[in-house]
Design goal:
The chain is α/β, with parallel strands linked by helices. The protein has 13 helices and 8 strands. A hairpin with an 8-residue loop joins strand 6 and strand 7. Helix 1 crosses helix 2 and helix 8 packs across helix 11.
Length: 296
């Protein structure tokens, strides 16, 4: 594989583009918004500067990485000649199905189509294409340049050849790929989201405050970040979306989102992205400092 198209220049998309470009792949970063593309490239540049400051890369590595990325605002141009397309759009079923329908028409029949979805069925996504055997999940962890895991999700029709290709590709990125099967939430979020949801319920019922809950989990369970702070980092809207997917998929009340989470999302309190969630990030550079702390 030489050319990788990444759809979406947000937090996950620019991180995925960063990792592929740093490993000398030709990357096509696609977003309908020119502003999002500019912001995505600025984020990649800033993250490379952090690596440079820590002597993890050289100046020439930064220049080479950025030169490997081209930006596109149209899907047709961006996926042309791509060997692999990684979709990292918003965690919304209809949006993803629409994208994959287009990709199936626009891409070469040999192109593998991957989704970075954290909870939506790969089998369902693959079903809207004429190449379900070449559709797979590549669930990168945030922040992508730092976190070593890639959760590889097989859809019902994903072939062994496709899985092998993506597993080896992930290893070439310096990641640790772990293969799982296609059930709501897969492994990572099936375990993580109920924990976050229970932490929110613990707060909702007045058992303890935000900092107390996070302190217990950090110092008592050796978690690098407390569950409420992690929820802010992920995005409370994303947490709610994933919990809804699992609740709909399993019909089990243990996956029902906390009313407090629902209300916070309705009120626009989404975490770092909105400068307020369980913590207040309105102070200058506060959100960036937390992200840097996590990245270190």
């Amino acid at each position: 594989m030489k050319t990788i198209a990444v759809i979406g220049a947000g937090t996950m998309g620019n991180g995925i583009a960063h990792v592929f470009a740093q490993c000398n792949f030709s990357v096509h970063l696609i977003d309908v918004s020119p502003t999002a593309l500019e912001k995505g490239l600025a984020t990649i540049s800033k993250n490379l500067d952090r690596m440079l400051a820590k002597d993890k890369i050289k100046s020439s590595d930064k220049e080479n990485t950025l030169s490997n990325i081209k930006t596109f605002t149209t899907l047709k141009d961006g996926v042309a000649n791509a060997d692999l397309v990684v979709e990292a759009a918003t965690e919304n079923l209809e949006v993803k199905l629409g994208i994959f329908k287009e990709l199936d028409v626009l891409c070469n029949e040999k192109t593998i189509l991957a989704s970075n979805t954290s909870s939506i069925s790969i089998t369902q996504i693959a079903a809207v294409t004429n190449r379900p055997q070449k559709v797979i999940g590549m669930h990168f962890m945030n922040p992508v340049p730092i976190m070593p895991l890639v959760e590889i999700i097989n859809g019902y029709s994903t072939t062994q050849a496709t899985t092998h290709t993506i597993m080896e590709l992930s290893k070439n990125l310096g990641k640790t790929p772990t293969m799982v099967n296609d059930y709501p939430g897969f492994v990572a979020n099936r375990i993580l989201m109920p924990m976050i949801n229970e932490a929110i319920e613990t707060l909702h019922h007045g058992v303890a405050g935000v900092q107390e809950i996070d302190t217990v989990m950090k110092l008592g369970m050796a978690h690098p970040m407390g569950p409420l702070q992690l929820a802010d980092f992920i995005g409370l809207d994303v947490c709610l979306s994933i919990l809804n997917v699992m609740y709909d998929g399993f019909k089990n009340p243990k996956y029902a989102p906390s009313p407090l989470l629902v209300n916070m999302v309705m009120a626009g309190k989404l975490g770092i992205k909105s400068n307020e969630g369980f913590y207040d990030y309105t102070e200058s550079k506060k959100a960036e400092k937390i992200a840097e702390q996590f990245n270190s």
